[in-house]
Amino acid sequence: MTDELLEWQTKQLQAIETHREGITVYVRPELVVEIAFNGLQDSPHYPGGLALRFARVVRYREDKKPEDADTIDTVRKLHGG
């Protein structure tokens, strides 16, 4: 991730923030981000039950609306569940 992308991302997320709980920041679902990862594994630590291995931001998808984004169900199918 470049410094420019990190700065843009920070401004965008702050603009759509709804509230905070501890270190967790909640935002309105308005941005679609493309994430690359090297694998999936089961995880008891995340609400979806899965963790992306070596996840990284590829780009933000201005050509897609939030309703076009994949869901946890898609990720579970990739994991074989």
Count of folded domains: 2
Helical residue percent band: 25-40%
Question: What strand order characterises the main sheet?
Answer: 1-2
What's the story with the biggest beta sheet?
A: 2 strands, antiparallel
Total beta strand runs: 6
Rounded radius of gyration (Å): 14 Å
Overall mean confidence score, pLDDT: 94
Helix and strand run: HEEEEEEH
Summarize the structure in short.
Helix content is 26%, strand content 32%. It has a two-stranded antiparallel sheet. Strands 3-6 form a two-stranded antiparallel ribbon. The chain has a two-stranded antiparallel sheet with strand order 4-5.
Q: Your description of this structure?
A:
It is built from two helices and six strands, in the order H-E-E-E-E-E-E-H. It folds into two domains: 1-31, no CATH class; 33-81, no CATH class. The strands form three sheets. Strands 1-2 form a two-stranded antiparallel ribbon. Strands 3-6 form a two-stranded antiparallel ribbon. The protein has a two-stranded antiparallel sheet with strand order 4-5. Helix content is 26%, strand content 32%. The longest helix has 13 residues, at 3-15. It has 81 residues and is α+β, with helices and mostly antiparallel strands. The mean pLDDT is 94. The N and C termini lie far apart (31 Å).
